[in-house]
Design goal:
The protein is an alpha/beta fold. Helices cover 44% and strands 15% of the residues. Strands 1-2-10-7-8-9 form a six-stranded mixed beta sheet, with helices on both faces. The chain has a four-stranded parallel beta sheet with strand order 5-4-3-6, sandwiched between helices. Helix 1 packs antiparallel against helix 9, helix 2 crosses helix 6 and helix 9 crosses helix 10.
């Protein structure tokens, strides 16, 4: 099944010499893969996954896309945008009560015309069950519906990052490390399947309780080998939606050395993980390193912890 034409690819790879020097690398070691510039709905890594999951949805005759996420979910926002592009209705099953301010990704969810279903303070597994029940109800009523998996991270969705890994090797043939935030696992899994586990450094965001197992399962589903998966779990802090000190510092560093805005949940954690890995000696000067910018700019404007830190 061919992926849909929803993304502006290939995305550029840009040098970050001032940031490299600031974290202890040589000035030409560090590059940024700009998947925040994927186009649709404000960009971000979920677009690559939606090219595949939405192709599957259309192939099955779906008229409604149903997916899940946190209140400021980038994946939910981009699913809403994809539905608008394709002429499909979108229902977003979100964690929370609907009391959150309509800012950031939530504002864009409404702009793209999605219907929001507030499911209460549920973990993502329970949200998935609510979404599955909603799909079943729609189908029973005669409306074909498709459940886009949490974070777009199924084997189908993760194929988008197998393609991205190949794209990245064409751009940076001497790649030694690609550093990526790990949420639902599909982005890291696709990169591991394409590049091998030794070259992918995944930084856990705390989105799930079993990041290594989820990622390994997806890698195997893609025909890759997850043995040797590199996973840092020390940047989660008190949880997924929190903003640990090193993550704030990473956001400030990227902004004030390169003028690059990182989101507070994903890419800022990835950079914080890279900083820690340079300090630990896992990433060394002279090794070509790419930070995958997975987007998430709207979430910056919905982050209460960030606003409080910078006030």
């Amino acid at each position: 099944m061919q992926p849909l034409d929803l993304a502006t690819v290939p995305t550029p790879v840009e040098p970050a010499p001032r940031l490299a020097a600031a974290i202890g690398l040589e000035s030409d070691d560090l590059w940024v893969k700009r998947d925040d510039l994927l186009g649709l709905g404000g960009g971000g890594n979920k677009v690559r996954k939606l090219r595949h999951t939405c192709a599957e949805a259309l192939d099955r005759g779906a008229r409604v896309l149903v997916t899940t996420g946190a209140a400021q979910s980038n994946h939910a926002r981009l699913t809403a945008a994809a539905g608008a592009r394709l002429g499909l209705e979108v229902e977003l099953v979100l964690a929370g009560t609907g009391d959150a301010p309509t800012t950031g990704n939530l504002l864009l969810d409404h702009l793209f015309g999605a219907r929001l279903v507030w499911a209460g303070a549920l973990p993502h597994e329970a949200l998935e069950e609510v979404a599955a029940d909603r799909v079943a109800t729609l189908v029973e009523a005669g409306t074909p519906a498709y459940q886009v998996p949490y974070g777009g991270s199924s084997v189908t969705g993760a194929r988008g990052y197998v393609e991205a890994g190949t794209e990245l090797l064409d751009q940076v043939p001497d790649l030694r490390h690609v550093v990526v935030a790990l949420g639902s696992g599909g982005t890291a899994a696709g990169l591991v399947a394409a590049l091998g586990a030794a070259r992918v450094l995944a930084v856990d965001t705390g989105a799930t309780g079993d990041p290594a197992e989820r990622t390994a399962s997806l890698v195997e589903g893609l025909g890759g080998d997850p043995v040797g998966l590199r996973l840092r779990r020390d940047l989660v802090g008190e949880g997924y939606s929190t903003l640990p000190g090193p993550v704030t510092e990473a956001m400030l560093l990227a902004a004030r050395t390169e003028g690059i805005v990182l989101d507070p949940v994903y890419t800022a954690r990835a950079l914080a993980g890279l900083v820690a890995s340079v300090r630990d000696g896992d990433v060394r000067p002279g090794e070509r390193t790419v930070l995958l910018h997975t987007g998430g700019l709207p979430g910056v404007f919905g982050s209460v912890p960030l606003a409080e830190r910078l006030a």
